[in-house]
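User: For my dataset I need records formatted as: sequence, then structure tokens, nothing else. Please produce one.
Assistant:
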Amino acid sequence: MISILIPMGIVLAITSFFYFMLRLLKVVREKAGFITSFLLLVFFSYGYIVGFWEGCRIGHIVALVIVVPIIILFLPVRMKNFTNALNLVSIVLILFPLTNVALSATGSSKQSEQDIGHVSSRGEQSYPERDIFHIVVDAYAGSTALQEYYGFDNSSFFNHLRRKGFVIADESYSNYPATWWSLSSMLNMRYLETKNISCKEAPKWFESEIRNNVVARKLKSHGYKYVYIGSGWESTKDNEHADIVYKGNKWINTEFLMALGERSFLKFLPLWVNYIKYNNRRNVIDSFENLEKALHLKDRKYVFAHIFCPHPPFVFGKGGENVPESELELVGAVWKNKERYLNQLLFTNGKLIQLIDKIFEKASNPPIIILQSDHGSSSSVDHDIWYDKAKPTTHMLKEQFCMFNSFYFPDRAKIIPNGITPVNIFRRIFNHYFGSTYELLKRKNYFVTNTKPFTFHDVTEDLMMPKQKQPENG
């Protein structure tokens, strides 16, 4: 609610300012109302104007807001009807970024274990008396992509994990190129199917799949408490199906505010920019702090955290310092700033090292830890591919799918092959630790776009390592 009240308060303040300034200048009420509506329309549709007006610059917009009011002042006509029309258009443009938020209402998953090919458990089984931590750092590139696309050697971080006993699956590729699809597939241990669901309905479906997933339900049936660390990102911000939820900034919808700012002149206001940066920083810091709080829970628990980092916006320096003049964008040109991505990745490394050390320090019985990303980075990716305006090249796909995948098993179980495919991770864990007999699925990688969220393009062959002739069951 506050996410809506804040921009609405700004709208009211700006509207009042424009209107009363015009009235002070002795402009008649109807023309003052029309000019105010026009200025409001331009203020909140800046992004749309630049998008549709090729070659448009800030100077053109400034000229527009000067020339049009002057013309209106000298027009000998009544403006009431025009004012009402402009008001309606302004309201639509202001509320447009809210549609995705409104459509992401929660739902319940109807998925059964039969849907994922569960056979049985092998007789009496002693379930592990240890916690499970599942931590997903968003858009954290795998070692191959970091070397090839960024010229960066991340071995110091990986070696630290190995010294702690982690296994690093160096040749891992995500099954899907983006968060919704990756988390929905991995947490339900199956590939996604083609569905007749529109773009507008998709957020609700994905949220249901992610929040009420098969992995969590199965672990709860084995006596685990489901502990959920809210990310601040709308789809993983909250979870009504979890036993315990740690929320960060639960009142602020950062995605909505960023979308509103990107399409309006708000992006040029330092106060607004700093406010958005603060919220993005707070969401990430809260995620790490809440993970530490979860360590103190006594019951056996499955802790899931989706941390929106090192994914942009780039608001952390490598030491955690604030980044001046950072682009408050999630996709597109922001990815071209490789230095800021690497700095935010180094910040993430530092926080993860601190967290892992504290997990081992606090745990009386070492837990199972899955530490991974949902997909790779996007420095080489053409933004148009997400909207079916361009086709992804193999070069783009390899970066987007190359993921970070690491695991800690206290018994040093050798159950994770180097090229583990995410859909099989929990199939392997349940088979080894819980006596299940899930079939291991053949590796598949599917590209999908925002405009056609359930049309899947098999790109497995494009992503196979040179030494791999056939995709194996990973």
